[in-house]
Amino acid sequence: MLEDRIHTFTATKIVQQIRDQKLSAEKVARACLNRIFERESAVQAWQYIDPALVIRQAQALDQGPFKGALHGVPVGIKDIIDTVDMPTTYGTQIHAGHQPNKDAACVALTRRAGGIIVGKTVSTEFANQHPGKTMHPMDPSRTPGGSSSGSAAAVGDGMVPLAIGTQTTGSTIRPAAYNGCFGYRPTWGDFRMTGVMEAAGSFDTLGLIARSIEDIALHRHVLLGGTSEAQAVSSCQPPRVGVCRTQFWDKSDHATKSAIESCAQAMAKSGAMVTDLKLSADFDSIEQTHQRVSSFEFSRNRAWELDNHFDEISQILRENRLKHGAECRFEQYRKARKHCEDLRLQLDDVFRDFDVILTPSAPGVAPIGLNATGSYSFSSIWTACHTPSMTLPLFSGDNALPIGVQLVTKRDADDYLFAVSSWTCGLFER
Amino acid sequence: MLEDRIHTFTATKIVQQIRDQKLSAEKVARACLNRIFERESAVQAWQYIDPALVIRQAQALDQGPFKGALHGVPVGIKDIIDTVDMPTTYGTQIHAGHQPNKDAACVALTRRAGGIIVGKTVSTEFANQHPGKTMHPMDPSRTPGGSSSGSAAAVGDGMVPLAIGTQTTGSTIRPAAYNGCFGYRPTWGDFRMTGVMEAAGSFDTLGLIARSIEDIALHRHVLLGGTSEAQAVSSCQPPRVGVCRTQFWDKSDHATKSAIESCAQAMAKSGAMVTDLKLSADFDSIEQTHQRVSSFEFSRNRAWELDNHFDEISQILRENRLKHGAECRFEQYRKARKHCEDLRLQLDDVFRDFDVILTPSAPGVAPIGLNATGSYSFSSIWTACHTPSMTLPLFSGDNALPIGVQLVTKRDADDYLFAVSSWTCGLFER
Known about the structure:
The structure is a homodimer. Chain A is an alpha/beta fold. The first copy, chain A, has helices at residues 2-5, 11-19, 25-43, 51-63, 105-112, 149-156, 173-178, 213-223, 254-269, 286-301, 303-308, 315-327, 330-350, 377-384, 414-426, and strands at residues 46-49, 74-78, 116-121, 162-167, 182-185, 205-210, 240-243, 273-276, 356-360, 389-396, 402-408. Chain A has 15 helices and eleven strands. In chain A, strands 1-3-2-4-6-5-10-11-9-7-8 form an eleven-stranded mixed sheet, with helices on both faces. In chain A, α5 links the parallel β2 (74-78) and β3 (116-121). The longest helix of chain A has 21 residues, at 330-350. Chain A is globular.
């Protein structure tokens, strides 16, 4: 019976059971591979997977000493992140079959701690708008979100307990929410980006997707280069909560609004000081500002592909982001970048009065249609401001599809973000 | 007679003469190649060069329409920057023969504007301490500086008019100064880093090395994605100059001190308001702070090489930077990073009273010995503070070896940096 559920275990549980010799890395790997075989045709989460290579990694771990905090944990890697033993295609046929000559830093650090790289998860084209092949695990007519589409679908569907994605706008928080996962976007700058395709360096971070907050804290510890055991997620006092509906509130559906209200009520009932937070008018244009900065950077980062493979770039990417980016003059870009810097300092001040911001993760459940990946609006503010955030899979909407709520803390307060996320989840455990 | 000097032309002059049909791209390329053939055994500036490929690029330009602001200009590319048609080895035998599958953004943008990629210039190991094979063009017993060793030596020795380097501490300013070149470190964040090896993302920028300020302004324009002609370098009023001797003043030799004093005097004589600038005590530990941040990031970025090729890493890199970085805990790193952020804001305030800072580029002329690349102290402050800076090749010291003076302006004032650099050089023209 237990064996049937191994693929649903958290990373923390897997490591514990391997340490206790109740499980082997190979057994875990086979459980995940079985789940993938069973479900992949319906989900299409993987850009590349070589089961024999997965088994070999697991067997090597079983034959060696205990390696580290992720010993035996299967991990999915977004396909814009380089791997030395698997092709990396950045979500585009332009780079089909491309084999990097080394692992990205985050992949090497994951392996150093004993993680098993299961395969490459589907990314949208260059981690941008144009979707890959992945379908929502609960409804193939719906998007799994993007751009970390395969990473979120794989974790959500029980294929792997951990996956690395990235976020430049809302590319981790949104798909994690759609797929009923925990999704974490770190303080900008904490994780090294060697071997990760740059979309827009001013905003790019890795994003972690998992089944528990503890697992995210564990993986973060490893990616920061931690060698000893990860510290347990701390507990915290009832926080001062700012409920931030944002200028995008009217875009969100009934279930999302009601999730935020329910969460706020539960927090207040447990002693949190919950008040409404309205950001200053300076934040009104942040989505446009964010897009200006990221399009400018993105279009220059794709100079080689633009000049050598223009026809192989999707029409939507060419006519939107790349065109807008190319048309943006440096002075406009610099002004927009400065606006983001000013807002970061302003948000630092907001956090004098609040410990955490509660806000939607997305406007609703995963939308129908596979030609787009849903709205990133509820992430763009926080991404532009470099703050850490976490989506918690606490609610559901139409057709029992998942709805996340997003918690945001000030920059550099990632440990506290985990604590307050854990406190919040505790309110909903029976 | 003219033909003998083509290899010493500025980029601006080359483009103009090609437009005026006084020169062909092929003629320019051959002139540079001839200079390289003649001098390379003594200088060893190039990690990779394929003369036939250079000629083919030039001929293609001559046969096509006028391509852009760098039409026909030979450019050297530091070997930590990816090129689709030449190997990229990051200064280490670990990556010997590695062939990237695309151009870095800066390479693609240079080609888009008509630049000819001549070859890969020698980098120290992973753009760090351990030197490559390059020798100082004026004295083979001396270092050319590093880490952009080959880029600076190639421009300084008349092999190419432009080269791209990088700077994480003092890797462009120092070698440019040693080799009698103009060297420019941009405001952090302006140039995209796709395809450039990350050393320490919090400080990494490209660095441009050239024979004139105009050439640097031209190349910058291209790397920002500019398609029309570059604007001419502006003129400026006599500036308010802060002479910043820094805590490293006592490390600098007589010729360097006297270069700074002479430059300050010349500026004052021409109407500049020149005063001494002493930074607050908060800046005293900036070198250590910079090293803490960059070592933490560098060591995590090299996770794959550490875990797979440890024995092929130089002893000095393993026992210094990588060891220090590995030993640095995340909390220490974050504190150091925050210190840099605070100093940036403090330096913004300093620039309310000054238009430009005058400070040494290095403690002296290129030192004797090929087992090290000289001191980066006079760059670490400005690199940590994200300000743009330029070294001007206006002076000389022992054995007529070049001495640069460094100008620094506030962040985002790169255009003004060019103007005030040009004004300063004007004072020394007869």
